[in-house]
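Dear Dr. L.,

I hope this message finds you well. Following up on our conversation about the binding site, I have prepared a predicted three-dimensional model of the protein together with flavin-adenine dinucleotide. For your records, I am including the exact sequence and ligand specification that went into the calculation, followed by the C-alpha cells. Please feel free to forward this to your student if that is useful.
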Amino acid sequence: MPELRVGEWAWSVAVGSNLLDALNLAGIAVPYSCRAGSCHACLVRCVQGEPQDNRPEALTFAQRERGWRLACQCQVREDLQVEVFDPRRDGLAATVAELAWLSPTVLRLRLRPERPLRYSAGQHLVLWTEQGVARPYSLASLPEEDRYLEFHLDCRQPGAFSDAARRFQVGAPIRLGELRGGALHYDPDWHARPLWLLAAGTGLAPLWGVLREALRQGHAGPIRLVHLAQDDSEHYLASGLSELSAQFPNLSVEYVSAAELPDFLAKLRLVSRQTLALLCGAPASVEALAKRLYLAGLPRNQLLADVFVAHA
Ligand SMILES: Cc1cc2nc3c(=O)[nH]c(=O)nc-3n(C[C@H](O)[C@H](O)[C@H](O)COP(=O)(O)OP(=O)(O)OC[C@H]3O[C@@H](n4cnc5c(N)ncnc54)[C@H](O)[C@@H]3O)c2cc1C
Ligand code: FES
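The resulting structure of the complex is given below.
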C-alpha cells in the first residue's frame, strides 16, 4: 500500500484512494466545495511522488509545475508527500471593508486586499475564513474602477461560509486563495455583437462585472441583461441596473421571477445568430437557460456559462 506523508505524519492508504478523502479521513483538514474540479478549494502541493490526476487540464501548466494538484481529482498510486494549501502562507491577506444587505438574502461583501490584485471581470476566488472554511465566490468588481474587491453572497440557506459571513464585522481578516477565470469574460472582439447576460440569483455578481467592463470598453451592440430571482425583492441590483440603462441606450434590463420563468423560457427567441450569451448561477437555472438557447438555435460555441456548484 502506498504511503501518504504530510509534514511529520505518514500513513498507508489503499491504492487508488481519492487524495482528498485520504487526507480528510486522516484528520488533515483539506477544504473542498464542488468535488468536481471547478472551485479549486482543495488545492494541495505534491512535493514528492505523483498522484494519478483525472483532470490535469483544470490547472495551468505553471501551477502544475509548482506541484499544485486538485486533491478531489487525484488518486494515490504511489508514495506521495503533500503540503496542504496554507492560506496564511499561500494566500493573500485582506480585510472586510464594507458589508451591506442588497436584498433580504444577498450580502455584499467588500474586501480590501493587502496588495492590489490583478484580475479581470468575471473571475472568481476562493475566500478563506479565519476558521479555515474555503468557498469559491465570483468578483463583481472591476480592477480599473473599484477600490475594493466586491462579492455578492447568497445567504438564503444555512452553510458554513454563509453563516460565518452573516457574522463578519468591518475590519475582520479574510484570506484570498487562488484567482481563477471560468468561462465568463468580456472580449473586445465582441464590440458590435448582441450580448445576452443571463443571471440567476447571485450569478449576477460576475455578470455585473462583465456588463460594466463591456460598457467601459464602449460595447456598441445591443446588451440584454436578464436577472432571474425567486421574487421581486431579490432583484438586488435593480437600482444600479436602472441607472446604467438610463445612461446607455444599448442596454436593456429584464427581471424574471421564479413563477414567470416557464413563460420567459417558452418565449425566448434569438433575434440574431451573432448573439453571444453569458450565463451564470445555480446549476438547474443555467441548465434550463442553456437548453432553451440551444433549442432556439444559438450555436454552442456562442454560449459561455459558469455554474455555481455548491458544496458537495
Ligand atoms: C466558481 C464558483 C463561483 C461561485 N460564486 C458565487 C458567488 O459569487 N455568490 C454566491 O452566492 N455563490 C457562489 N458560488 C456558490 C458557493 O460557493 C456555494 O454555494 C458554497 O457552497 C456556499 O458555501 P456555504 O459554506 O455557505 O454553504 P455550504 O456549507 O457549502 O453548503 C452548500 C449548500 O448545501 C446546504 N447544506 C449544507 N449542509 C447541509 C445539510 N447537512 N443538509 C442539507 N443541506 C445542507 C446549504 O444550505 C447550502 O445551500 C460559486 C461557486 C462556484 C463553483
Ligand atoms: S475543485 Fe476540488 S473541491 Fe472543488
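In brief: The pocket of FE2/S2 (inorganic) cluster (ligand 2) is lined by residues 32-35, 37-42, 70, 72 (CB under 6 Å).

With kind regards,
A. P.
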